[in-house]
Design goal:
Elements lengths: L3 E14 L4 E19 L21 E6 L11 E6 L9 E4 L12 E7 L7
Antiparallel strand pairs: 1-2, 1-4, 2-3, 3-6, 4-5, 5-6
Amino acid sequence: MLTNKIRIYRPGEPVFNPDTGQYEPGPPVTVYEGPGAIFPTGGPSVVLHIAGQAYVDDTPSRYRLLTPLSAPVASREDTVAVVEAEDESAIGRTWRVIDIGETSTLSIVRTTWVDQNTQTTGA
């Protein structure tokens, strides 16, 4: 089931650039790289808005990330990338973690809700 290779990473510590006098994002820190799978939830999600305010995780492209239970738990705002996949159109796509991994007493894989960042047609 976990036939793809995925990478979970987060921004590294800011690094001071003496040329600009500004702090810049450091290199990303890989949290996990290994077997995983990404599945759509069956269609766009529907979130009700209250007084015109979007729900904090309002997204039209909700997906599920599956990882082995031995993988570290991803944190909110981590990025997930497909590194290797049978479907070449999936390689390079990224998702934003919108909630930490779910847990239960009957788990065989960890499920983490993610939101797709990139969509390309290859055209």
